[in-house]
Amino acid sequence: MNKKTSITTLFCMALMIVMFSYLVSPVITYANDTETYEVSSSTLNIRSAPSNDSRIVGQFVKGNQLTTFKEQYGWVQTYYGGKEVWVAKHHLTPVSTSSSASTSPEMKENLTVTVAAESVMIRAGAGTNYKNTHSVYQGDEFDVISSEGDWYQIKLQNGETGWIASWLTTEVGGVVSEETSSSSQENISNPPQQQPASSGSLAGYTIVIDPGHGGKDPGAIGIGDVQEKDIVYSTSNHVVNQLKEAGANVITTRSGDYFVSLEERVRISNDYQTDAFISIHFDSFPLLSVSGTTAYYAHKDDQPLAADIQSSIASSVELTNRGSMHANYKVLRDTNAPSVLVELGFISNQYDVSIVQTNDYQQRVATAITNGLIQYFK
Ligand SMILES: [Zn+2]
């Protein structure tokens, strides 16, 4: 075999291998037309990649319909919470192809809707069983990208997409959505979270509560292995409830034990017309005798808010009052709203740690923060 022949042979072999692999391997199919499927199993995990080892980012339930864009290795790609996600195709049954046109994005291209209810939850999918990702308010306008059943997929100001119940919107141009008569359907099936605030001393105010740390970031570790992120979270829940009780619209930067970056916390606050941003933390210090509560502010203008909140806390709990102080924390520096970070006791101190974990303490703090805000907005 001379040199020329062997090169030609190698080239042909390589070509054959490439062609063969195209024939047998399940290469990505880019669907010219999107496909619409219905979930046939009781639950279906939504994953970040087309593999059973990939991260679960959510769940569909039986009857959910989804539009898919790609197919690969028995997985189909769709969008969830504005992100590209994958689900196993064998849990899906196709919805008749003709009806897929009715859910195609082009269908609703020129529709713009206005939020009709005072405050409406934006969800990660077309149904009340999906996670609440944002809140929008009466008069806000959004372009509709697609629709599914009685739900519109809309483009949010931050570039993400989300789903809104069509019966809580009106179409811009004066045509009232057909389903408006069944108005508070979503609120009835989902009573607690974000009821329109109509009364109370904080009615009309939007407060962002920022539970510090979470997930891989435990914050300070205190006596008895107490993790700051956990007490922060339970305390924040008390604060959120008290604020809602007072009529405020409350937005939280984390609603579970997961990591949220400082940038994201700032972004969440700045996405809204936030009247105040309160970050919740607990302290620790190598000197075990140090104890007490502190309120920090970064901008001079925010000092009155820090003072009102701190004096309210100091008068309601038995921990030492360390006053309000300046500190250049990112969440205080970069948020547009008046911002305060409260350190609600030292988990490195035996006395503080025994008190701050109690329901009674967290409840008192929640009431104190609420009263501090009422005082500030007076
Ligand atoms: Zn902290």
TrEMBL record:
Q: Does the keyword Cell cycle apply?
A: no
- InterPro entries found in the cross-reference section: MurNAc-LAA_cat (IPR002508), N-acetylmuramoyl-L-ala_amidase (IPR017293), N-acetylmuramoyl_amidase_3 (IPR050695), SH3-like_bac-type (IPR003646)
Task: Answer yes or no on keyword Cell wall biogenesis/degradation.
Answer: yes
Q: Polar residues: which segments have biased composition? A: 185-200
PROSITE patterns for the chain: SH3B
Q: Which UniProt keywords apply?
A: Cell wall biogenesis/degradation, Hydrolase
Where are the stretches annotated Disordered?
176-200
List the Pfam families.
Amidase_3, SH3_3
Instruction: Tell me which residues make up the SH3b domain.
Output: 34-96, 108-172
Give the PANTHER family listed for this entry. N-ACETYLMURAMOYL-L-ALANINE AMIDASE (PTHR30404), N-ACETYLMURAMOYL-L-ALANINE AMIDASE AMIC (PTHR30404:SF0)
Per its record, how is this protein called by name? SH3b domain-containing protein
